[in-house]
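Ticket opened by: R.M.
Priority: normal
Category: complex prediction / small molecule

The reporter submitted a protein together with JFZ and asked that the result be attached to this ticket for the collaborator who will pick it up next week. Submitted input follows.
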Amino acid sequence: MNFIFELFITLKKQVSLCILIVANLFFYSATVCAQQKTNPDSIREKMQWFADAKLGIFIHWGIYSVNGIDESWSFHNKKISYENYMKQIKGFTASRYNPEEWADLIKETGARYAVITTKHHDGVALWPTKQHHFNVVENSPAKRDVLKPFYEALDKRGIKRGAYFSLIDWSHPDYPGFLKDSSRYKVADNPQKWQRFQHFFQSQIDEVNKAYKPDLWWFDGDWEHSADEWQAEKVRKQILNIHPGAIINGRLQGYGDYDTPEQNFPVSRPKFNWWELCMTTNNNWGFHPDDNNYKTPFEVISIFVDAVSNGGNLLLDIGPKEDGTIPAEQVHILKELGKWNKKNGEAIFGTLPGLPQGHFYGPTTLSKDSTVIYLFLPGQTAGNIMLKGLVNTIKDAQVVGTDVHLKPKVVGKISWSSVPGLVFINVPEKDKDPYMTVIKLQLDKPVQLYRGQGGLN
Ligand code: JFZ
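Result attached by the on-call engineer:
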């Protein structure tokens, strides 16, 4: 990111101060969370595709889709016995699974990456693991590696391949954790057993790494053990030795590359270098026929735009059925999002985070060279919108995805003051997008903002 914001602050007695703030300082100075042990400068290059990607599709597919119950947590939280939970494996057929169709749908959304559960906390692998542990190839009627054709289909379409991998394995006899109120042993009391587990899970990671070379690793469950216990640094190196460009999410006890707030929406801009909001389309990660609490396409688009405006990505989840079909409500959301992206994508993909709060009552993004501001009109806005503190001259204003050009009006510019006037733009009702309208402002040069208090300091 190499543009600068110029912040003009007019002080009392006509002392004009011009402060240049390097954007790096603005966006990158910050508490780093997932990345305490990694150096942001050394990973910046490999993170570029992720920073530009903005949208990923998350897929929670596993034996929990057979009964349509909580993924792994249902037995852990004792809503169902472990035995009955595991019986679902006999119902996992993948009989109508069409990975090419999945990849087409993902492509249609505009997403640049997809992350699939290679193994959830229940320990059931979707690939033919050689570690003598549950997998859908040997233990389920699906009888095949369901990951391979999916990753191939993504590859064909230029979509980056992500592997969700649960460090926790509540099914493994050498893993301490099991039900919410019971554990098999304490690591300190039985280091050999824990070492066997370390060897096991690291061998599984190695299998996935060598077989599919994921572009992104999405670990989960690190909270049950420390970085030392997981040998997090070793795991990171093990992955990067095979695939130096691989990106690792923040759930590796400080050895990841980016942060993953889950189902929680930031209000002020997160100070992480890179972050990704993962979110369900209804209230559940996996297939849940009883859960009809779906977000509308408008709500999903609003959340997506808000994340992007604040420098984040959205990883939007779907939960296919055991036969491999995707619930119709989820297909609908994905297609509507895709339609919107097709029209408005230039304001999203490959952009920079938008203006700091205070200039516009809605999300914004900037083009890479920061000579374009995109204004996202919240809700069903039409009529006059207002932009404050823009020092630049606007060369052109256009409704994105259309050939409609608008005429901004500058109000209240005082000749003797360096404080910019207010920009009003009238957006006609007839040019509104059904979900969210975007206005493109072409500036005379990289954006310059006035951030002062109106002439007096
Ligand atoms: C985790 C998983 O447990 C969940 O099943 C899903 O895969 C999601 C994407 O990631 O989410 C969590 C993480 C922590 C807690 C609950 C769900 N927790 O600490 O209660």
